[in-house]
Write a structure and sequence with these properties.
This protein has helices at about 10-35, 40-70, 75-100, 110-135, 155-160, and strands at about 5, 10. The chain has about 170 residues and is an all-alpha fold. The chain has one domain. Helix 1 (about 10-35) runs antiparallel to helix 2 (about 40-70) and helix 3 (about 75-100) runs antiparallel to helix 4. The chain is elongated and about 55 Å long.
């Protein structure tokens, strides 16, 4: 099943998730280092990474929802996609709450917002596994003409379909 929204022949949702995922995970790493070393500037960096990561996560979620709506009802992919989306919404909410709790003291946040961020990263790993299950196991978002010698995604689609190696991925 191909992604519904593409840019230059590639699904948009997986392109966008790397930014919030990287920012949010790195914010937790910065929190840990700041806690251990007493570096307020890393807490500040974490604060802004969370703000940017939450915004990026919301943008990526729009494209994930569009793709999810295209998955046929009653399939395992629909169910896994739902749990992937719900888990990511929870992750985003936990980080947003963490950010809000840091607002008054971003250079020295209390333990609660830092703990929420750690919990959110653990849930993000679960959500990422579910996303991998969707793509790698169930073929969601995979181009119908995908194979080891496929032509470039920038090439003409009709050229792909006339390729003798063209095959549909179920």
């Amino acid at each position: 099943m191909e992604s519904r929204v593409k840019f230059l022949g590639h699904p948009v949702h997986p392109m966008l998730i790397v930014f919030p995922l990287g920012l949010l995970a790195t914010s937790v790493i910065f929190d840990i280092i700041a806690s251990l070393r007493g570096v307020p500037s890393l807490f500040m960096a974490s604060y802004w990474m969370i703000a940017t990561g939450v915004i990026g996560g919301l943008v990526a979620a729009i494209f994930g929802l569009i793709d999810w709506l295209g998955i046929p009802r009653g399939t395992r992919a629909k169910s896994i996609g739902m749990w992937h989306g719900i888990t990511n919404v929870v992750v985003t909410v936990l980080f947003a709450v963490s950010w809000l709790l840091r607002m008054g003291m971003p250079a020295n946040p209390p333990l609660t917002p830092r703990a929420l961020s750690v919990l959110a990263v653990v849930l993000a790993l679960i959500a990422a596994w579910l996303g991998g299950e969707l793509v790698d196991r169930l073929g969601v978002g995979v181009d119908a003409g995908a194979h080891l010698d496929s032509s470039s995604s920038l090439s003409d689609r009709s050229a792909k379909e006339s390729d003798p190696k063209f095959r549909r991925v179920a």
